[in-house]
Amino acid sequence: MMHLNLLRLGACRVPSRLMSTKSTSVEINDKTGVAILSMCRPPVNSQNVQFLRDLKSSIYEIENNKSRGLILTSANSNVFSAGLDILEMYNADKEQLGTLWTELQNVWIALYGSGLPTAAAINGHAPAGGCLLATACEYRAMLPNCVIGLNETQLGIIAPKWLMSGYQNILPQRLAERALTQGRLFTTEEALKAGLIDEIVNSKEEALEKCLNFIGTFAKVNPLARSLTKLQFRAANIKEFEKIRQKDVEDFVSLASRPEVQKVMGDYLENLKKKSKK
Ligand SMILES: CCCC/C=C\CC(=O)SCCNC(=O)CCNC(=O)[C@H](O)C(C)(C)COP(=O)(O)OP(=O)(O)OC[C@H]1O[C@@H](n2cnc3c(N)ncnc32)[C@H](O)[C@@H]1OP(=O)(O)O
After folding, report:
1. Which residue in the list 45, 106, 123, 151 is annotated as catalytic?
2. What is this model's ipTM?
3. Which of 138, 148, 163, 219 makes an SS bond possible with 126, Cβ 3.0 to 4.6 Å?
């Protein structure tokens, strides 16, 4: 009887810390049952194979533990995620490129296809793969003086359709096309104006609070009805992705291993290193 009461009170249903991997940590808010998934691969949460595998397993763990929602954020102070780890794409062989891309696909489908309410507390820059993660979520709160966007064309690579779908769900077609072809990074203020983010916040705490409030708006909605409705909106993108999944890996490998694309990546990396030494 006592055990039943405890369960009703939720006292042992939700642990305060669920799981950690090498590059992620998950905390459950005891009051709300919402999971905060923090990415922690310093300095910039660049997405290598291990990081992507950790992220995927944390997302599924949160989903399987029947949390009430998922908030994605960064444990680093000024970067949400710098996107794919260019060091793992530069001078990599075809097998390594294929594995990296497959893991990026796996994370995207885990997050984009999650039935839970999802929100991104963007407490730093979110270029490329960082923007991909943020736009796979349903809501975004972001700190000022940061950038977000899909800048792939600047690296000589093309964002395939599935990768653009979060962007396309949010931005008007004309703006999305222009931003993607330009490889544009939006400042926080521009992102709010364009509708790419929902709120500008002054601290990570405020970002988390806004995300919690967003997830709280579903408190009185039947979770199954909510989740199926969300997935109806996303079904066409998911179906299309599943159809081309393998070919998409082959296309990426073929593009990313071209000498001219490797050269752009090498130069880009060198510029990044020069900038960080200044
Ligand atoms: C078909 C293809 C579709 C492709 C889909 C996804 C592709 C990608 O995700 S490609 C990755 C694109 N990412 C970027 O263009 C971001 C590059 N980084 C930055 O612009 C800045 O680092 C950032 C604004 C995120 C943060 O700026 P700072 O806080 O000033 O940090 P630093 O620039 O000094 O960087 C610190 C340190 O990290 C290294 N770094 C940064 N980004 C990456 C990265 N993506 N991969 C690997 N390494 C990265 C940077 O070189 C510095 O290293 P050190 O010089 O050794 O300190």
Report:
1. 151
2. 0.96
3. 148
